[in-house]
């Protein structure tokens, strides 16, 4: 049976085996999907061993995405832009192809919630790996402007400079942000520490769409805060997780699984519904 897995550290919490097992059942693909948690300095060896032993493909998550980028033979254009790899496929020619499906997953999830990206003014909070992966797919949707704000402002400036050939992207400090924005995407890891990015509450209004890449059984701190300040449409990153997985599954198997039912099952599994 074709073997896939997700590499991460820690990875035991990962929902990827659950999601891909449902995708495989739905599309009648024979495969198994597991977890691998190598020590941080043993990822390269573990990756080699997996493919030497017949593995067909893998996902890569924190903290290995940047390292995976340096280990594959070929990169997709979106992985080159993201400088990180979350999906690896062993091609029929024996080539390890590195891809990045995170940004495509985000855009697919935003669209599935009916969020309009074309001509919209988007604020992206954070300038880490997730922001980097999101930029090219977001700019491809032709927003009127995309502003990046990050705690360390120089990183936002660097990202804006790197992606400005793809569209109207600029960097601004949190203090000097001027609304109105149509959509705010929180790609910071602040919620992981129970913190909030230092965004002025005045930027939140009833018609704004709020997206937090983090997810959980209850509202993330950022979503709770945005609701408190009047945001009516809020979304967490669970849909992005399922959509990026669907994109990876398509890369591996050449068949696109449906995501709605799988997302519902995942929510039930997490106790959200
Ligand atoms: P990184 O560590 O690469 O980047 C973290 C970013 O958050 C940096 O820009 C950092 O700013 C900022 N940050 C951290 N703490 C704070 C704080 N207290 N206040 C303001 N800014 C802060 O992480 P990633 O980009 O890889 O991941 C970010 C988030 O996205 C995580 O929560 C992750 O779980 C989520 N994610 C979700 C996915 C999904 O499928 N739903 C997929 C990928 C990621 P600075 O530069 O100043 O340090």
Walkthrough of the structure:
By secondary structure, the chain is an alpha/beta fold. It is 38% helix and 19% strand. The chain has a six-stranded mixed sheet with strand order 2-1-3-5-6-4, sandwiched between helices. The radius of gyration is 18 Å and the shape is globular. The chain binds NADPH dihydro-nicotinamide-adenine-dinucleotide phosphate. The site of NADPH dihydro-nicotinamide-adenine-dinucleotide phosphate has 27 residues, from helix 5, helix 6 and helix 9.
Observed structural traits:
273 residues, alpha/beta, 6-stranded parallel β-sheet, 12 strands, 38% helix, globular, binds NADPH dihydro-nicotinamide-adenine-dinucleotide phosphate
